[in-house]
Amino acid sequence: MTAELTPKGRVLVVDDDASLAEMLTIVLRQEGFESRVCARGDLAMEAFWEFRPDLVLLDLMLPGKDGIDVCREIREESGVPIVMLTAKGDTVDVVVGLESGADDYVVKPFKAKELVARIRARVRRLDAPTHEALTIGDLSIDVAGHSVTRGDLSVNLTPLEFDLLLCLARKPWQVFTREVLLEQVWGYRHAADTRLVNVHVQRLRSKVEHDPENPEIVVTVRGVGYKAGSS
Amino acid sequence: MAADPTLAGAVRRGLTFWRRSIQARVVASTVLLAAVVVAAVGWLLVQQTQEGLLENRVDAVVAEAANETADASTQLAQVPGTDNDAGTQLRDLYEPIEDRGAARGFAVVLAGPAGSGVPLTNGSRSTPGLDVTSVPESLQEHFSGPAEPAWTYASIRAAELPAISEGPGIVVGSQVKLPANGETYTLYYLFSLDEDAETLTLVTRALLTAAGLLLVLVAGLTWLVTRQVVTPVRLARRVAERLAAGELQERLRVSGEDDLARLAMSFNQMASNLQKQIRQLEELSRVQRRFVSDVSHELRTPLTTVRMAGDVLHDARRDFDPATARAAELLQKELDRFETLLADLLEISRFDAGAAQLDIDNVDLVDVARRVVDITRALADQRGVAVLVRAPRHPCLAEADVRRVERIVRNLVTNAIDHAESRDVVIRVEADESAAAIAVRDYGVGLGPGESAMVFNRFWRADPARARTSGGTGLGLSISLEDTHLHGGWLQAWGRPGAGAQFRLTLPRRAGGLLRQSPIPLVPSDSEVPSGSVVPSDSAVPSDSEERV
User: What is the per-residue pLDDT across B319-355, written as a single tens digit (0 to 9) for each?
Assistant: First the structure.
């Protein structure tokens, strides 16, 4: 299975379509990822614990258990990046998927390169630890330790939420447009769905803000984008 | 005119009531018609009564006159022949008649001997107080010689006191031969018609009263009858309005079995059928949407696998022999096309199912034009086409779905580049208070007569023999049109063979606003460019700014 000497990461593929799953395995192996396939939604958690992946590729329509539910369950247990594979470009599905905890999504039919770019963007932080200590609002960020604390309390963020917060905290003077955030946090090179940013900003606020209705840490700049709140 | 607004308002309200109320109109027209008929009947009755009265009266008076004359003649005949003093005889003749006349109510005139030419006013005897000129000339004429008795209508006038009753009357004349001198004298009897006139007045008054009452009755009846009909109709109208507003469960109350009840029943049946049909259509639409969604999933998953397999083959084509490598390239290219076609088909099905929704935002069409130019730059360069943007310096804002608007403009520009034949493509952006517009002009082959409407048809091609070069799906303009309709906007095409074409998108500034006109004319100002000539000079179209891309 692990033919590559230094696998770049482990990917769990949860998809009931055998051909697509195999094809994904082939492509991922070519790109240096180790992968395992799970064909049923109700077996996904089991496979997740056993394989301990660095990223989950998750189809939304699954036998046994819905992809959305699987996504929610994984998110309850772990902050591992989740990329949804969706056949529907419709607003509702995507938003529901993102709100249930997925970090990103690709719409079928996607190109192999596109998918790999998405995966790389999500696992790239594995190989660039820097020593840096930042503050945003009343939060302090330990970049190397991947932790955020308010006073003595630690705030539990997923890697994506951490990246998003970090991106804003590193340049508190700058207003980030949604497009720029998509490029810096998600790794998109072309303009993409800005709903990704909206949904994740909401999720991040629900964790770090005292009052998510009146955000003080991630501030909306009307008509432009977001910036870090002044401390 | 506008002196009294309250009066004008009242008049307007009255007119509105008149226009809207069937009841008022029916009552008014029925009363009008009844009035005409009643008037005609009344007039006829009065006429006939008058005629009958007069006829009777004439018969009576003529008989009476004849009677009097006969009496007088008999008495004259009994007078002994010796007594031949004409004056005495005349007196004997006249006085009894005058006496009887005074008793019975008629006046008498005894004219001079016939043929003597003596006028009545001179030397005639008559009832005191009577103006003898009351006897018409025509009658006197008649009796200028010996003649049969005759009568005529006349106006009886009084001369002096004691006056006799004046007014219309009948004059009967007859002649008597005086034995004393053998002369013929004419006797005129003047009968008054006062009594008959009074009777007639009475009858007329009675008729008028009856007519008035009849009209009131007719008006009341009509009002009652129309009310019985109009009330259910108004009820039906209200229910129909509620149905139209989408309250499909609304029904009329049916009572009895009359025509109105049956109307209500038919109405309710119609409403039920309508509701059923709408439910069916909704169900159909729901199934259609489900189908679209299912097809989307079912087709996309295998296509993803094929796509990735194609990518793998394509990446490895250097290791293949030339034929296999080329096959891998073709596979890749056609997969792209298949993917676009599938995406377009799904988009069209979504429109057909009515599942397309707008994501409204404030969109600057100038920005959109610039972005589209960036996106299509590769294709334009490949074709050797320069795409120019002519836009005012201020933003041209409209409330729209930016994704869809960008897709429309991208379709138009790609289409223009495709048909530009290496000449320039010009994008114009303009806005006024109510609308924002973007027009894409090319100077290529243009459109034939009637083709400007057909370009939006699905899978339509100007020339079936002409190869599709950019790999467009044939659905681009149809999707653009659907997108435009979703915004309540216009998408129109103008073209002339050899003179190029212009596609114009007009959007209302406010979402849901109504379009009346577009800030950009559909037929471009340089439309008269003769075929064959290339691009117009840049100064031909005035603009605030221009950039060459």
Answer: 999 999 999 999 988 888 888 888 888 788 778 767 7
* Alpha-carbon distance B356 to nearest alpha carbon in chain A (angstroms): 10
The domains of chain A, with CATH numbers, are 9-126 (3.40.50.2300), 130-228 (1.10.10.10)
Within an 8 Å CB–CB cutoff, is residue B303 touching chain A?
A: yes
- Architecture field, domain B260-352: Orthogonal Bundle (1.10)
Give the contacts of B291 (CB within 8 A, at least 6 positions apart): none
Closest to A108 (Cβ–Cβ): which among B304, B357, B359?
B304
> What is the tens place of the pLDDT at every residue in B200-238?
899 899 999 999 999 999 999 999 988 888 888 888 888
Q: How does DSSP assign B43-68, residue by residue?
A: HHHHHHHHHHHHHHHHHHHHHHHHHH
pTM for the whole structure:
0.54
Question: B354 Cβ partners below 8 Å, 6+ apart?
Answer: B285
Q: Dihedral through CA B26, CA B27, CA B30, CA B31, nearest 10?
A: -160
Q: CA B525 to CA B502: how far, in whole Å?
A: 11
Which residues are CB-neighbours of B96 under 8 A, at least 6 positions away? B71, B72, B75
Q: By the 8 A CB rule, do A229 and A215 touch?
A: yes
Percent of chain B scoring above 70 in pLDDT:
89
Interface of B with A in 135-154 (CB under 8 A): none
**Which residues does chain A have within 8 Å of residue B312's beta carbon, measured at their own beta carbons?**
23, 26-27, 30, 112
| Bridge partners for A35 per DSSP | A11
Sign of CA dihedral B69, B75, B78, B79: negative
End-to-end CA distance of chain B: 63
Check residue B531 and give its pLDDT. Answer: 43
- Closest Cα in chain A, distance from residue B458 (Å): 23
CB B110 within 8 A of CB B185: yes
Using alpha carbons only, give the angle B141, B142, B144 rounded to the nearest 5 degrees.
65
Instruction: Indicate which of B294, B295, B297, B301 best probes the interface with A, i.e. most A CBs within 10 Å of its own CB.
Output: B301
Which residues does B209 contact at the CB level (< 8 Å), separation at least 6?
none
- pLDDT class for B541, splitting at 50, 70, 90? very low
In CATH terms, B81-196 corresponds, of 3.30.310, 3.30.1310, 2.40.10, 3.30.450, to 3.30.450
Residue with tokens 């109504």: B514
Give backbone dihedrals phi and psi of B111, rounded to 5 degrees, phi first: -85, 165
Residue type, B412: L
Neighbour count for residue A158 (Cβ, 10 Å): 20
Write the CB contacts of B461 (distance below 8 Å, at least 6 apart in sequence). Answer: B468, B474
Residue A23 has its nearest CB partner, among B296, B308, B339, at B308
Residues of chain B with CATH 1.10.287: 260-352
In chain B, CATH 3.30.450 sits at 81-196
**Token digits of residue B107:** 């006046």
* CATH superfamily, region B361-548: Histidine kinase-like ATPase, C-terminal domain (3.30.565.10)
Chain B: closest CA distance from residue A200 (Å)? 19
Query: Contact, B534 vs B443, CB < 8 A?
Result: yes
Distance CA B361, CA B81 (A): 136
Looking at residue A91, its pLDDT comes to 59
The mean-pLDDT minimum among A72-81, B11-20, B251-260, B360-369 falls in B251-260
Which residue among A27, A61, A88 places its CB closest to the CB of B308? A27
Neighboring chain B residues of A91 at a CB cutoff of 8 Å: 357, 359
Query: First and final CA of chain A: distance in angstroms?
Result: 50
A20 touches chain B (CB under 8 A): yes
Every domain of chain B with CATH number 3.30.565.10 lies at 361-548
Candidates B380, B420, B351, B43; CA nearest to B204 is B43
